[in-house]
Each structure stands twice: as structure tokens, then as C-alpha cells.
Specification:
The chain folds into two domains: 4-173 and 224-252, NAD(P)-binding Rossmann-like Domain (Rossmann fold), CATH 3.40.50.720; 191-223 and 256-289 and 307-327, UDP-galactose 4-epimerase, domain 1 (Alpha-Beta Complex). Helix 5 (141-159) links the parallel strand 5 and strand 6 (163-169). The chain is of the alpha/beta class. It is built from ten helices and 14 strands. The structure holds uridine-5'-diphosphate. Uridine-5'-diphosphate (UDP) is lined by residues 171, 189-191, 194, 206-209, 220, 222, 260, 283, 286.
Length: 329
């Protein structure tokens, strides 16, 4: 059996950490990326095939060349606000390109597929923690594009030999503990890197979006999951499919609700500096609390988060911010 795995979008944040985990587990991660948002420096654990995931001719050639045992599909646009302003981009890149990619998988008999889905597919939760049976009613084109991805997988796997695991990520954060890779987004919109950059004076301050939520300290609660844990979850999902596991959809979270204020306070403690904070209004579309029931991941994949304490997330994210400066990236 081949040990190659196609990692589409493997030059990005979660993709590159998954490549590291795949290599450590004895697989060869072959990255497919157009480098529009991914980074060539993040491709460190196997070869790069530069091209479009939605280009059927290119993808057919890549599959025939590497004969992978599975495919992990990360390549997508992932800015909620941008998706509202430019929904066509999200349908084109997250839906149309994914359909083309899945069609090639079906035609080439590449039947083990892992998909980066999102807790954004749930929309505004009616109850937390969220389990996989919670209704999926997205409130943005981004969330809808991920839900359509899940639905394509459902119907295509119903009609063809393809099997899949859709992994619904909560808030990916932190960085590789060895400092080899980490988060670099342009623009950066995520809380953890923004808080650290504010503490280091790279940004003037961090704006807290809303202090009047019905949570213990009035700020939103989220489920922060370390990107290294996300990497090992993909390896577990791949093994599950290789061993013949049935198609399924699984939350990847730590299961712990953490507030914006808690993130800021812990960052100040870890870095040993005050974080300049500006308290502002709520951001449109932010539910008060979003966190996972992570039990299914344990039962089906035997996976649990191990690196997702808030302290470890902030420590590794802080070290990565320093490393980035050294590397000039
Ligand atoms: N947040 C904030 N200020 C920022 C960015 C984010 O207060 O500059 C809050 C946001 O309202 C949410 C949490 O931090 O409650 C995490 O937001 P992020 O954009 O990192 O991830 P999301 O949960 O939206 O996927």
C-alpha cells in the first residue's frame, strides 16, 4: 500500500501542521496548493505540487503520479466577513472547486477523503455543548459553503465507493512546539494572534467585541483547539478510513468554553506584559457561546485533545510570533 497522502491546501495553517503529524506517523504528505493563501516555507514534510484543486486535468495527473492512499481537503477561503461581501468567491472556491476535486477522486478511485468542515455549519446554537446532531443552519456564505461540502460528500458517497470523514473544527489556535510552522494570515482576524501582537506592541491594542453577552464575564466564549491536536485528529481519521470505517462527521474541539477576557488575561500572564485592550461593540453574527461536545471523536477515532490547555496555546503562539520576527515572515 502507498504511504502517500494528498494534502490539498497543505501549505496553510492547519494543513501544514497536519503534514507534520502525517510524516511523524509514517505517511508521505504530498501538498497540493496554489499558494494563494498558503506559504511555500510551510511545505517542509513532503513534496509540493503547485496548482488548482479544482483543475481536473491537473488533479488527475497528480493522483496518477503519487497513487495516494487518501486525500485531505483543506483548500478553502475562510473569512466569514469576506464571504458576506463576496459570496461568489466562496461558492467558486469552496463549492465548485470541491465538486471538481471530488469528481476526480471518484473517477480515479481515490476513495478515502477527509474534509475540513467547521462549527460555522451549526449557525447560532440552540444548545451548548454542540454535538454532531445539532441542526446545521449556517448564517454566512462561508458556513453554507462548508455545509454544501458536507452534503456533496454525503450524496457522492451514497452513490459511489467514496467514504469520508468531515471534521468540524472549532477555534484552531497555537503553533508547532518546535517552532517549524505556525499561523500567518493576511489579514489576521483571529483572537489569539491579535492578542499576542497587541501584547508585543506589533498592534496598538486588541478590541474586545462585546462585553454584554450572557456569559460569566460578559465576553464571548469559544472552544480553542490546538493546531497540533488538529493534526493528530486528521491522522486518526485517515487510519479510520483506511481500516474501512464508515463515512461520518465529527467535531474537533477541546470541549472547554473560554472567554475573550480569559484569553487576554492568560496572554498577559504567559508573556509577562500588559495587553492594551479597547472594549467595543459586538461583532455581527457572533453567538455568545460556541463549544463542542468532543465525545464522538474519542469514541469513533480514539482521539482526544492533548495540547489544548489555554496556557499551551498561548505559549506556543507567543513563541511562534517571536520566531516569525526572526525569520522575517
Ligand atoms: N474577538 C474579539 N476581538 C478580535 C477578534 C475576535 O473580541 O479582534 C472575539 C470574537 O468576537 C469571538 C472570539 O474572539 O468571540 C474568537 O474570534 P475569532 O475571530 O478568533 O474566531 P471565530 O470564533 O469568529 O471563528
Amino acid at each position: 500500500m502507498s504511504n502517500s497522502v494528498l494534502v490539498v491546501g497543505g501549505a496553510g495553517y492547519i494543513g501544514s501542521h497536519t503534514c507534520k503529524a502525517l510524516k511523524a506517523a509514517g505517511f508521505l504528505p504530498v501538498v497540493v496548493d496554489n499558494l494563494s493563501e498558503g506559504h511555500e516555507w510551510a511545505v517542509k514534510f513532503g513534496p509540493l505540487e503547485r496548482g488548482e484543486a479544482g483543475d481536473a486535468t491537473f488533479m488527475t495527473e497528480v493522483i496518477r503520479k503519487h497513487k495516494p492512499v487518501g486525500l485531505i481537503h483543506f483548500a478553502a477561503n475562510a473569512y466569514v466577513g469576506e464571504s458576506v461581501a463576496n459570496p461568489r468567491k466562496y461558492i467558486q472556491n469552496n463549492v465548485v472547486a470541491m465538486h471538481n476535486l471530488l469528481s476526480v477522486c471518484i473517477d480515479e478511485n481515490l476513495n478515502n477523503v477527509i474534509f475540513s468542515s467547521s462549527c460555522a455549519t451549526y449557525g447560532v446554537p440552540t444548545q451548548v455543548p454542540l454535538d454532531e446532531e445539532h441542526t446545521q443552519l449556517p448564517i454566512s456564505p462561508y458556513g453554507d459553503s462548508k455545509l454544501i461540502g458536507e452534503k456533496m460528500l454525503h450524496w457522492y458517497s451514497n452513490a459511489h465507493p467514496l467514504r469520508y470523514v468531515a471534521l468540524r473544527y472549532f477555534n484552531a489556535s497555537g503553533a508547532d512546539a518546535d517552532g517549524e510552522i505556525g499561523e500567518v494570515h493576511d489579514p489576521e482576524t483571529h483572537l489569539v494572534p491579535l492578542v499576542i501582537q497587541a501584547a508585543l506592541g506589533i498592534r496598538p491594542s486588541i478590541s474586545v467585541f462585546g462585553t454584554d453577552y450572557p456569559t460569566p464575564d460578559g465576553t464571548c466564549q469559544r472552544d480553542y483547539i490546538h493546531v497540533t491536536d488538529l493534526g493528530t485528529a486528521h491522522v486518526a481519521a485517515l487510519r479510520y478510513l483506511i481500516e474501512g470505517g464508515a463515512s461520518t462527521r465529527i467535531n474537533l474541539g477541546s470541549g472547554k468554553p473560554i472567554s475573550v477576557k480569559e484569553v487576554i488575561d492568560e496572554a498577559a500572564r504567559v508573556i509577562g506584559r500588559e495587553v492594551p485592550v479597547v472594549y467595543g461593540p459586538r461583532r455581527e453574527g457572533d453567538p455568545p457561546g460556541l463549544y463542542a461536545n468532543p465525545l464522538k471523536a474519542k469514541e469513533v477515532l480514539g482521539w482526544e485533545s492533548k495540547h489544548s490547555s489555554l496556557e499551551n496555546i498561548l505559549t506556543t503562539a507567543y513563541q511562534w510570533e517571536l520566531r516569525r520576527k526572526e525569520l522575517g515572515i
